[in-house]
Structure formats: structure tokens, C-alpha cells
Amino acid sequence: MIKERLEKLRAVMEREGIDAYLILTQDFHGSEYVGDFFKCRKYMSGFTGSAGSLVVMKDMAGLWTDGRYFLQAEQELKNTGVTLFKMQEEGVPKLSEFLADKLADGAKLGFDGRAVNFKTAQNLNRVFEKKQKKITLVYDMDLVGEIWENRPALAAEPVMLLDLSCTGKSRADKLSDVRAAMEGKKADYFVLSSLDDIAWLLNIRGGDVACNPVVLSYLVMTMDSAILFINEQTLKDQVRQALAADGVAFAPYNAVYDFVKQIPDGKSLYVDEKKTNYAVMMNRGEGVKLLTGDNFTLLPKCIKNKTEVDNERMVHIRDGVAVTKLIYWLKKNIGKTQMTELSVADKFEELRRQQEHYMGPSFEPIVGYAEHGAIIHYSATEESNVELKPSGLVLMDTGGQYLEGTTDITRTVALGELTQEEKEAFTLVLRGNLNLAGAKFKSGICGANLDYLARFPMWERGLDYNHGTGHGVGCFLNVHEGPVSFHWRVREQERTTYTELVEGMVVSDEPGLYFEGKFGIRTENLIVCKKAEKTEYGQFMEFETLTIVPIDLEAVLPEKMSERERELLNTYHSKVYENIAPHLSDDEAAWLKEATRAI
Amino acid sequence: MIKERLEKLRAVMEREGIDAYLILTQDFHGSEYVGDFFKCRKYMSGFTGSAGSLVVMKDMAGLWTDGRYFLQAEQELKNTGVTLFKMQEEGVPKLSEFLADKLADGAKLGFDGRAVNFKTAQNLNRVFEKKQKKITLVYDMDLVGEIWENRPALAAEPVMLLDLSCTGKSRADKLSDVRAAMEGKKADYFVLSSLDDIAWLLNIRGGDVACNPVVLSYLVMTMDSAILFINEQTLKDQVRQALAADGVAFAPYNAVYDFVKQIPDGKSLYVDEKKTNYAVMMNRGEGVKLLTGDNFTLLPKCIKNKTEVDNERMVHIRDGVAVTKLIYWLKKNIGKTQMTELSVADKFEELRRQQEHYMGPSFEPIVGYAEHGAIIHYSATEESNVELKPSGLVLMDTGGQYLEGTTDITRTVALGELTQEEKEAFTLVLRGNLNLAGAKFKSGICGANLDYLARFPMWERGLDYNHGTGHGVGCFLNVHEGPVSFHWRVREQERTTYTELVEGMVVSDEPGLYFEGKFGIRTENLIVCKKAEKTEYGQFMEFETLTIVPIDLEAVLPEKMSERERELLNTYHSKVYENIAPHLSDDEAAWLKEATRAI
């Protein structure tokens, strides 16, 4: 089947005079998750992993993927004629170098420029130039689309409006802020491609990307117009009218490419080149003055306003009730009722669905029992699914979308007697979590300045976790939202770790420890940055913990914590009891009382 | 007198067709301190402060300086005809803007391009361009030199060779490393202007800048030659022969400018433009390919080798003996013997001079009693000098140059009963100092990741100190040495706070608290970065404290410290007693025993 598809692709490649065709795993908007319509690489290779790049040439087809997927790719590529290139392995060329070496001078490399990020294509050009190969990028084609029979349709979920009581700021005010920023940069046109930015700016939500309540669209703004390029069938009259009332006009989704071509010479075009695809960038005329920088929506979206923060607090009580009930259910039923990783994930969904304004999961739930907890990106499948037993730890990283906010919480829960090793590791992770949330700092500080607080309990013992300490979180939007984050790394080209922490930024605080083949631990809360006192030394800042769910005291060694750390935990647990107990049954509340006792 | 000098300068300006003449406070090498030869601004204006820029035009003369010097400048500029421009005050133009506004199109701005940093001059050009003024920079002149009667001679202290037992690496090996780096950058020529880099690279020391044991010179390297531009009278035969044996040739100090002019077209020239003066940069021919980046010596100089670190340990015992004796003397004699800030500074010098291989102070000593301790850059003068009394705190920040290393230590000492406020502040500062020195961290971490550790005790109480937490320190070289440092600020253009901490880097750890009109506290040790264990999670790092001098327990509130902080202090004090007591008299040792008791 794959072989046939490759032959068909080669036929259209030949017709178009294309020597190599490149198929990545991106949608047109650089989204973290992509819809079925965009899964060209999977269709053409049979490889189903979440990361991989396919090159098809006359005499070969090759798939590049990383260590997480070597085994899976080997199996899935069997008898397809597609060669596996194991990234980072010794002697395996990078995709760009492979192309530079293999293609002849003057060759043509084709790809769908809408599904390739500008920076990625630029990097190809850089490598070709370095290797002194003249290779033309032909980006104005979708050859897979031509041969793909029964290609899934583009997602076209109905668009909903978000009320001012959810957004805290009207669409008109947001548009006006963007125009003020455009004026500051002398930008005549502003093209916005990233879907969460568009949803935030227009106070709309949709369901076009799994777990991300966004709408497939592009937005182009000038000082007196705003055109939303969108499948108009997704717009009910009421939505259309509300947008139109704020000066938003509509055009077909793919018409944005012709629009960009027609921007007059001499005008200036502002884009965030990190978040824009190659086709949008290259379609501009040579006489158009290009201005680049962060999207004007990036920081305003990240800095939640008072309404949003108040809503987040409310949502986290609802979510906290669901998760607390789940932990109670786990503790009471483990060993009595049969439960598996998948059934626990279902139980999360069931309990969250009982909460007001629950809209669905904010990402694919992770429920990893025992050694599965040590696999950081684990997500149970029918094949990997195991039964939970009354011993050891289960790591549960889940989250919900609510009309008023987004949650993301990890709790690791003892299902029976734990070993000293498990308790020690749990306590280290907890200490990291508490110390970061308990930080008090000066205005101007960024995530890189504070990351040490979450890691030092591990570092003191020669341990570490191989992921960031925290990521920004959207408000009824993407659960991974830049630019704020916690990581110690400061790189010149990555602004995320030196984005100043500002009142209203919501970030996760999620240190962990992972022991392969044994168990994994992560404790994750969302925290929001707030102003503390202002003194003659400046404005001081602190965090408030939004997530309100007990931390399993059965896994804690109080004697391994400092007095301050115990105080931080006890204060947190008082708050949990106070906010969650009123929403529980008597049995649950009695259990919670004990589960949140001072230590 | 000043008026006459200005008239003379205007006469030569007119002769040269110069409309404005600019006089900064820099030597030819961007040194932190400048010798008397370079004090043109003081000669021309009468203003003696350490920072200030003078502009002389036909009808005006203006001096720009900052808030520290407003009072002093007003007094010193009286009746000179020089107008004071108070920097940062509202309505006061910046020097560059003043020039751009006041000079006519086509005007000529003159200055000694050797005494103006390249970046400074570039900034002038940028402002002129922005204001659309065509102003020519004429940098090939020293008009003050022409009219300066009895100008002090350029420093010409004898050059000494440093033995391999001091440097741990031969000159030949260092030169060979630089050439390898040049090869990596395809650099045909490398011009090195910063004096500590030259001294380090050639294993020489001198005395041409106060407190910095450097030699006025430039070094130009090619793949097979090295030319030292220097006053050859400072080279004894033995020194000359040793340098020549490693392929170093000599040329007159100022001949470097003609040399740069003669670099052939098509050749590449590598310089650190942040550390090079305008004349060197502009003298290159247009056909010379300019390569810029950090000096090749920057990191190797900062990362001390095993010999250097071992020597630093030894030197810090000697220095610790001197400072411990001083504290003993203070404690025993306060209220009995008359002592002033200046006499205490003299006592430091007297006690250090008794130590082996002491070469002089590493910076001007700061001894600030009571409210003088709150003035961060305080240095007692005959006018400000006060008597020390048996009450309150004295802050003493001093350091020494030894043949094998450089010290920099601050101790704040109780001279009598302290208030609770003083003790609380002292304890906060101590906690910051201990926590930073006690850090354990992963390889890759930089100063910005750790700064929080020194500040959080203050930040938790809405307090702060308005200076960096630490700076790199040379080895028998400059007491302020880049690029390593501790500060929370991460700026794209300042690499100092994201220089990775590497084994062998010596940095100061000096949090403080300053209460204007009352008292100031700072506790400063030098710490050296070392490898700790390597685990499956990576290479871990820690600090060893080099400075070995007791911290005044009479100012400490043990109950305000965590258990770990008390442990860190007790461990430190054990080490102090063990290393210092053997070098003390019986009385001193008995006192030290008590002064380093566990708390």
C-alpha cells in the first residue's frame, strides 16, 4: 500500500520536475498537535509516531525520527521501501545534509510551503549554501494532497464566542492594542498565523486541534481592517455578526496566500517568523518591507488579566474537586475494584465531566503505573495498558479545558506500602515543588533565575530530571503557551527562559524524578505570578498556587523536609481542605481532613 | 588656570579646524583604573572624580558626570568656565545628543582615538546618523598632550616574569593555544589590547596601573610571530631574553597604530571590539577582513588551572592570617587605642606586608565606620575620615596582591554592643553568603541561575542590595576579571551573567545591606568552582570557599538561621580555625577558638 502511494507520488513529482519531495509533521500554523488532514507523513510512510520527516526521491524514500521512535519505526516501515534514518546516531546524516549531498547541482526540492515552518526551510537553504549546492525550493505545491484518496477533511468545528466575563477584555480593545503596537513598529500589515494567538485576540474558541480549543484560520490586520481567513461554514450568524461588528471581515481559509502576494510594494509587513510558514513568508513581493518580531499578541496573551486570574482560581476549585474525588476513589478501591491505566484516565474524564463548564481534556492524559511512571512521555495504549495493584506509585498527569480556564496537574499517588527509596524520591520532588512556589523575588526576574529552587533537592544528591521545570499555560487555550517558562538554560536565541515574570503569568511548577524500570514521580501545580509589596528597594513578586489538590502524605518523609518546607506544605493543605471539602460527600471530606493534616 | 588651559586647547583646535574636542576618562586599553598620564580630563577641567567626560568648543566647555559627583563637581568647576551637565537629571541632554544638536552639519569632532573605546565612538556615530547630522570624527590627534606642560610620564615600571610554579602553564603553551584558536577562526592577525590579557598570556606582570599588576603594551599575533608593543626600557635583559625565546619580538609602544595600518589587504584581523580603542579599529585598511569576538585569552584566563587554584588556597591562608590578626587587634584595642578609618586601612597594609610574597593592595581599601558603611563606593579621605568608637559596625573591604594570587575580602565587624536591627541585617547577609557558597548544581549553570541564593533572605523581607553578588577575580591580576559573575540580570548583550560556571573559575560572593545614614553590612568571600560527583544525570559542580577569615559571631542571630545554614557556618569556621590558628600567637589563637565556636 505504502509502495503504491510512493509510486503515485513519484509520478506527480516527475510531472512537476521535482527531484526530492519533503514531508514534515507540521500543520499550516506550527501547532503542537496536528489534525488528521495534515498527517501526510503518516499517509505516505505508514509511520505513526508524533515526530518524523520523510524524503521521497526517485530511487529512495527515507524517514528521519528520534530515539523515542526507533523501535516503532522499524516495525512500521517494514516492507514499505522506506529507509529509517536514526537521528543523532553515529554516521547517520542529518536530513538537510543528506539532501545537500544526494541532490545534484540545480536540483529541485519540492514541499508544501504551508506545512513547513519558515525557519526550517531557511535552515535547509543555509546548509545547501554551505555545501555550495544550488538547489531550488519549490514550495507552491501539495503533491501528497493530489494523490491522497479519501483524505480526511480539514477540521471545521463550529466557532464559539467567549464572553467578556471569560476574557476580561473586549475584542475591540484587543484589536486596538494591536494596532497601537503596529503603529509603534510602523507596520502597515500584520499577519498572524498561530492559532492560539488568533483565538485569544478575537475572543473566539473552536475545536480544530485536539485538546487545543482553536480555530483553523489566519488573521491579517491593517490599521483599519482585519481579515479572518477561515472556512466560513464554521461561523454561525451570531458569531459572524459579532466579529463583523468589531470590523472583522472574512475570506476563504487558503486565500491568505494570494492576499499576501497582493500587498503593495513599499508597504511594510510585520510577522513573527518563528511562527509563520514558508509559503506566507515567500509569497510577499520583493518590494514589501519585512518587519519581524514576536507576535503583538504574545505577551498580552501570556499576562492574564484580573478576570482571567479570578476565573482560573474558580476553575481550579472545580478541577480540584474532580481530582480529589479521583484520588479518594483510587485509595478506597485499589485492590477491590479492577482498574487499569486506561480506566483511571476514563475516570478522570468522568469526574471532570461532572464539573461546570468542562469542555474536555487539555492534553492526552498520562496515567503511568509503577515503571510506566518513569517514561516521561508515556501515554497508555491498549497494548501497554496495565492493571493497577495495591502497591507502589501511580503518576497521573492530566488537565481540563473549562470555559473559564485551563488546568494541568500531576499527582503521584501511593497505592500501597512504599519503599524508603520511593518515599525519599517523592519527598525530594515535593521539596522542589514547594520551594519554587514559595519564591519571593524582585520584579525583573525571569524563569532561569528561579529554576534552581525546584532542582536543588535533587542536585544536592546528584539526581536530576531531564525536562523543564515549568511552562506557561493558556486560559481556556493551549496548555503549553509561551514565552514564559522555568528552565535554568539561558540561550541567546531562546527568549523563553529570560521572559520577565509579570503579574498574571500562569506557569506550571513540575519537578520530577524518574527511575527507569522502577517508578516515576512528578508533582505539578499551576502557579500564578503576583505582585507582593513595593518597598524602597523595588517591586517584589511572589506566586499563588492555583492547583488545589492534596499531595499524598503517605509518600512524604516529614523528617527530610526543612521547617519552612513543612510550613509551606501545611499552609497549602489547609487551603486545599478549605476550598475542596465543601464540594465533597461526608466520607470524602472526612478522608480529605486526614489527607491534609499538618505534618 | 583651567581657563588658560582651555584657551590654549581652543587655539590648537582652531589650528586643526576642530569644532569640538572630546576628553573622556579612559586609557588606551579600557582599563578600570587609569594612570596619571591619562588624566587629561582632570587636567583640562580641574574635576577629580573617577567618572566624567569633557567637551570643549569655541564658546563653551561642558562636563558630564553622574549623581555620585554632582556636589564635588560643582565645587571643583567653580570659576573654570566649565558648565556641569548632571547626567540622568531631567532636561539634561546626553553628551552625544548635545553634540549632535549643537554642532553644525559638516563639523569636525576631535579626540584622541586611542583613549576612546570603539563602542563609545560607534555610539556617537549612531546618534549623529539618527539626528541626520554629518559630523566627522577626527581621532588621530592628542591636542591635550600638545598643551599639557609637565605632563606626567607614561608609567614605565619594570616588567617581571612569572614562574611556571605561579602560572601553571608556560608562555609557549599559551601562545600555541591562542594560535590554535586563531586557526579555528581563520584569523591572520590578532590584536590584543586589554592589559590583563597580555600579562596573563605572556606570564609577565608589572605595575603600570594602580593595584593592577599589568604592563602598558599591545600584543599583535600572527600564526608565526608575536610582537609586543612596549616601552622597551621596562624590559630587563633577562625578561627580554625569556620572551624572545618564545618568539616574542618588540616594537615601540605607540608603533602599534602604524602596524595596524600596514596589515595587507585580504588578510583577516581578529579583535574584541568591546576591548579595543577606536584608533586601533579605524587604522585598519578597508581591504582587511575584520573578525570580532571575545579575546581568545578571555576564558582561559578566567578558568584557573590546578597550579593557580592550589596557589590561591595558599595565598588565602596568608591573607587570612593578616585579616584575622587585624580583627583581633580591632576587637582588643577599640576604645583603648585611637583608630580611624584611614589608620585601620594602614593597619591592613602593615599586617599584609608581613605575609610572604605580598605585592600590594588589589584595590583601594574601603574602611567605612557606622553610616560610612552604607556608602557602597566609600573610600575614606582626609576630609571624610572618622574615628572608630566601641559601638556599631565597621565595614572593611580590602584585598591583596601576592605573587601567587589575588584576594578580595569584606568583613563587617561589631565594635561594641549591636542593636537588634544590626544583628538581623547581618544575619540576612550572612545567610545569603552561605547559601550561595553552599550551592550544588549541574554543569552548564551560570551565575544568573544562582544569584537568587544570595538574595532571597533579603528579598523575603522586601530588602535588596543594589550591586552584583559577585565578580570574577584574577590570579595575581585584576581584582575585577570577566566574564564570570553573579547577577540575576540576563541581558542579551551582556554575556557576563550567562557565562557557564566552569571548574577553576574564582568568583566573589558578596551580598550586602545598606541603610543610609545608619550602617552598612557586606560579607565577602572568594569561592572557586569545582567538579563534584558525576552521575548518570551528568556532571555536578560545587564551590570551595577560598577566603579563610572568621565571621563575627557577635553580630549573628543563630535562631534566625536554618539548621543547614548554621551547619555551613560551623563547617566554615572549623576550617578557619584549623588553617589560621597555627600562624597566630597564643592569645590570638585562643581568641580565634572562641570566635569560630560552633553555634
Descriptive report:
Two copies of one chain form a homodimer. By secondary structure, the first copy, chain A, is α+β, with helices and mostly antiparallel strands. Chain A contains 19 helices and 28 strands. In chain A, strands 4-3-2-1-5-6 form a six-stranded mixed β-sheet. In chain A, α16 (420-437) packs antiparallel against α17. The longest helix of chain A is centred in the middle third of the chain and has 28 residues, at 306-333.
Structural classification of chain A: alpha+beta
- Count the DSSP helices of chain A: 19
Largest sheet of chain A: 6 strands, mixed
Largest interface: pair, residues per side: A-B, 36 and 35 residues
Q: CA-to-CA gap between the ends of chain A?
A: 62 Å
Strand order of the largest sheet of chain A: 4-3-2-1-5-6
Uncertain spans of chain A: none
What is the multimeric organization of the chains shown?
homodimer
Give a concise summary.
2 copies of one chain form a homodimer. Chain A is 34% helix and 20% strand. The first copy, chain A, has 599 residues and is of the alpha+beta class.
List keywords for this structure.
599 residues; 28 strands; homodimer; six-stranded mixed β-sheet; 34% helix; alpha+beta; globular
Architecture blueprint of SSEs:
2 copies of one chain form a homodimer.
Chain A lengths: L1 H15 L3 E4 L16 H6 L7 E5 L3 E5 L4 H7 L6 E4 L8 H8 L5 E4 L6 H13 L5 E3 L4 H5 L12 E2 L2 H4 L3 H14 L4 E4 L2 H8 L1 E2 L11 E5 L4 E5 L6 H9 L2 E4 L4 H6 L6 E4 L6 H5 L6 E4 L5 H5 L3 H28 L7 H13 L4 E4 L4 E4 L23 E6 L1 E3 L2 E2 L2 E6 L5 H18 L2 E3 L4 H13 L10 E2 L13 E2 L19 E4 L2 E4 L3 E4 L2 E11 L2 E8 L17 H18 L5 H10 L4
Parallel strand pairs in A: 1-5, 3-4, 5-6, 8-13, 11-12, 13-14
Antiparallel strand pairs in A: 1-2, 2-3, 7-9, 8-10, 10-11, 15-18, 16-17, 17-20, 18-19, 21-28, 22-23, 24-27, 25-26, 27-28
Helix pairs in contact in A: 4-5, 14-15, 16-17
